[in-house]
Write a structure and sequence with these properties.
Keywords: Amino-acid biosynthesis, Aminotransferase, Histidine biosynthesis, Pyridoxal phosphate, Transferase. The modification N6-(pyridoxal phosphate)lysine is found at residue 244. With 388 residues, this protein is of the alpha/beta class. It has two domains: 27-56 and 291-387, Aspartate Aminotransferase, domain 1 (Alpha-Beta Complex); 66-288, 3-Layer(aba) Sandwich (Aspartate Aminotransferase, domain 2), CATH 3.40.640. Helix content is 37%, strand content 15%. The chain is built from 13 helices and 13 strands. A seven-stranded mixed beta sheet has the order 2-8-7-6-5-3-4, sandwiched between helices. Helix 5 (111-122) packs parallel to helix 6, helix 5 packs across helix 9 (260-269) and helix 11 (290-313) runs parallel beside helix 13.
């Protein structure tokens, strides 16, 4: 077969700009993509730094579960086979561990995908979806992708306002998102308040309870989403992920637990092989790695106590959390602090995209990372005050 030459045939000089554009719906054209962070290696190259630490993405400071790594290594010879499209073994293990209906479990490419599947399954253009603000940015993006309308309910003292959320329901409301603990504030709703809230919601509405950080919550009054999936209305979809507490963020594996009636519709709109072989095998092994989960929790909780104490010493305000991250109020633009700390090799998250222009968010790291963060923050505060 003859090889094709370069395109266009006469070289780049003959290429004419294509003035025709595809017809793109307004709700797609106006989308603002989720702002991902750059790889650490690229940031180090751009800023001429080495040995940086990243406390910006709420990742597990201990790395991945050792049992998950061992299971992945043992499965590498099977990569020529397609994944188990049903996720049978992982769903079976989840069902047994959490007493969930097997047919009510849907696996996803991270819990993000379950958000998208639910929206694709139940929304049509112009439907309304209620969500807290600020909260996880993907809620709004996924709703807009389907031509739906995101209804934002401002937080009340940094916490989700369930009373106003229930009061915002209209005949066009199809879905409500509740993030518990809420990202980026780390605040919780109580079981009592959630029960009262559900009693006010019409039975035809789907409530998506996002529990991505639930393993780090210590408040005994925290609701467990799995207790609500048998409700006949409003229906509750519970989101869980292996990215945080189990350290599998790079494999992208999560799941949704719900009434099998709802799961049937999500399976209709998901891709046949939406989760990979290694992701399923790693998650299955991680579920049995209780020692690793407990070590992760202890490192995070001890780290948070140290960070609280040191931030108080620096006379900065912060928001106590029930997640593995927390907010710190800085005395200037968050983007300035992000840039200044980045130049010193410490990567944090500026919360400007969440409408919090004077807050940074960090996750608890290893003890030496937490100590370096405090030293860098202290130096950055001196730099900022000297620039005034």
């Amino acid at each position: 077969m003859k090889e094709r030459g370069p395109w266009p045939p006469d070289g780049p000089a003959t290429r004419q700009p294509n003035k025709m554009k595809p017809s793109v719906p307004e709700h797609i054209a106006s989308l603002v993509p989720y702002p991902p962070g750059k790889p650490i290696e690229e940031l180090e190259r751009e800023y001429g730094i080495t040995d940086s630490i990243k406390l910006a993405s709420n990742e597990n400071p201990l790395g991945p579960s050792p049992k998950a790594m061992q299971a992945v290594t043992g499965a590498l010879s099977r990569l020529h086979r397609y994944p188990d499209g049903s996720g049978y073994y992982l769903r079976k293990r989840l069902s047994g561990k959490y007493a969930l209906p097997f047919d009510g479990i849907v696996l996803g490419n991270g819990s993000n995908e379950i958000i998208e599947l639910a929206i694709r399954a139940f929304l049509v253009p112009d439907d309304e979806v209620i969500m807290p603000a600020p909260s996880f940015l993907v809620y709004k993006l996924a709703v807009q992708t389907m031509g739906g309308k995101a209804i934002h309910i401002p937080l009340k003292r940094f916490a989700i306002d369930l009373e106003k959320t229930a009061g915002a329901v209209t005949p066009r409301t199809k879905m409500i998102f509740v993030n518990n603990p809420n990202n980026p504030t780390g605040t919780l709703i109580s079981k009592r308040d959630f029960d009262v809230f559900l009693d006010r919601i019409p039975p035809e509405i789907v409530v998506v309870l996002d529990e991505a950080y639930i393993e780090f919550a210590r408040d005994p009054d925290t609701p467990n989403g799995f207790d609500y999936i048998d409700r006949q209305g409003p229906f509750v979809i519970v989101l869980r992920t292996f990215s945080k507490a189990y350290g599998l963020a790079g494999l992208r594996i999560g799941f949704g637990a719900m009434n099998p009636f709802l799961a049937d519709y999500l399976h209709r709109v998901r891709q046949p092989f939406n989760t990979g072989t290694l992701a399923q095998i790693a998650a299955l092994a991680a579920l049995d790695d209780e020692d690793f989960l407990h070590r992760t929790q202890r490192v995070v909780w001890d780290g948070l106590q140290y960070l609280y104490r040191e931030v108080e010493r620096l006379r900065l305000n912060y928001l106590p959390t029930e997640a593995n991250f927390f907010l710190i109020e800085v005395p200037g633009p968050a983007k300035w602090f992000y840039e200044a700390m980045l130049r010193q090799g410490v990567i944090v998250r500026a919360m400007s995209s969440y409408g919090m222009d004077n807050h940074i968010r960090i996750n608890a790291g290893l003890p030496e990372e937490n100590e370096r963060f405090i030293r860098t923050l202290s130096d950055t505060l001196v730099q900022f005050r000297a620039s005034l």
